[in-house]
Every structure is written in structure tokens, then in C-alpha cells.
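TL;DR need C-alpha cells for one chain.
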Amino acid sequence: MDDKIRLIIDKLTILNKTISTMESCTGGCLANAITNIEGASEILKFSAVTYSNEFKIKMGVNKSTIDKYSVYSINVAREMSKAISDFTNSDYGVGITGKLNRVDKNNPFGKDNITFVSIYDKQNDKYYTLIIEATKESRSENKVLIIDKITSLLLQII
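>> reply
TL;DR here they are.
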């Protein structure tokens, strides 16, 4: 995974572009993976871990979207990606929400093993989305699986 992230950092640096993330179930894993690579400070503007609905809303996700589709939806992931891009004026925003083989008593909707990802490309006003099934046993293994799929998509987009 480090090689893919190094390529992302190199591409964004060459293009003079930036990225920001709003992560929920991955708990900042994508931002951590980026900051593990030298040069990350050139391209990563900001990262927020918004585990609660309250802070997703404070960061720009519409409460009505959460109420209509549930916090575990591609609709919320899209709003997360655009909100973080707008908040930081980043070229790319990544929004991640979902469940990693866990029941959420506060949000009892949707499957317990699905993660929704959106990457917002500000220049083209375009969203790229992924729906990822958490197939691994541990949370940490599922986070690696999700970040691997996100970095593969980022390499295609950038």
C-alpha cells in the first residue's frame, strides 16, 4: 500500500493539487497512511474523523440527508467528500462511512459490513464512489482492505 500512496503523493505534488479526508469507520486510517509517507505535508490539507452524526453535520453533511438515507449510505459519503473539499478548498475530498462487521445501536440501519466511499474531484465537479464489503475478520484488516481500494481508485482519478 505504501507504494500506491507514494505514487498518489508524487502525482498530486507534480500537479500542485491537494486532498482532504473526512473518515468515519476507518478512523483516520487513510490520513494516517498518507502521513506515513514523506512529502505528505505538500498535498494533505486536513483530515477529520467524524464518528458521530453530530460532527458529520457540523462538518457540512446535511442532517436531512442522514435522516432520509441513513448515515450509512453513498449519499452521506458523497456529502462528506464534497463538504471536506469545500471546507479545506482541496482539489480532492474523500468521504468514508459505513460499518466494519459491527452493529451500531445509534444507527440501526443498513448492513453491518458495508462501507461507502466517495471521492470528490472539485475541478471537474465529479464524484467517484465505491461500496466495499468488509470481508476480513478484524477491524484493522478491513481498514487496510478499504484503504487499498480507495488508493487504487485515487490512482485512476488523479
